[in-house]
Amino acid sequence: MEYLDFEQPIKELEEQLEKCTLIGEESDVDVTNTCKQIEKKLKETKKELYKNLTPWQRVQLSRHPNRPYTLDYIKALCGDTWLELHGDRNVKDDKAMIGGLGKIGNQSFMLIGQQKGYNTKTRQYRNFGMANPEGYRKALRLMKSAEKFGLPVVTFIDTPGAYPGLEAEERGQGEAIARNILEMTRLKVPIIVCIIGEGASGGALGIGVGDKVLMLENTWYSVISPESCSSILWRSWEFKEQAAEALKLTANDMKKQKLIDEIVKEPLGGAHSDRQKTFDTVKEKILQAYDEFKNLSPADLVKKRMNKYSEMGVFKG
Length: 317
What we know:
Shape: globular
Largest sheet: 8 strands, mixed
Low-confidence stretches: none
Order of helices and strands: HHHHEEEHHEHHEHEEHHHEHH
Mean pLDDT: 93
Number of helices: 14
């Protein structure tokens, strides 16, 4: 188990509990009461700690190395029905953007999302979850296929941003993201968006337009990462905590501003602390969202989506 810096009190208590249990197993000393006391304190500490998380701590949790990624969700939700589809029919197959067909319950979906790696080798292979233009074009190709066959689309957002390299710009990164936003607003099938980790800038928006936008509790969604914001405003990464606070990037902030539709609760300690529970909750929310939109005609669906996005950012004086 890996711990973040603010989780040190939990780490210490869990180590104490481990030692206490070990003493009980290796000797005749009765340590039941001591273990119970430590367990009680551990429970209280966790509740207190995770109840009062700062925006920066939520950003840290969204990047936790043990946190489930897009493929983990897809495999948990679809099982053996998952069929990955590759390529944008133009340049190549982008490994940072994955997509394909799968069944959740008895309903078929087109599932698309950014995939990060879990060790050095896979992080390089997946380009750290940063998609190139061909990734967004692949996503659009799959969405258009879903529209053709009348399948609902589910997207999973987890990216530090679209890839900012020279070759990405040469192949039209900005155009690819803008095209996706345009096409997603008028796609004639239901789109359900799940923010499961980092939702940074245009990289997230490229697959982020939906009828229902769900956001997990310990994730963030913003125009820029706290570190980048800090380096622009203060010429240093030292002020990332203030930047996270000012950017209003947490799920609660997003809900308050009506930029997302629903916050999905995570188990105590984050999505990685009880993966199965997280997967079950996300599955339930996706199916609920699909039930909400499945009976709407394509024209009503598009109209409703257009109205939803037109109303964003409107402030009455």
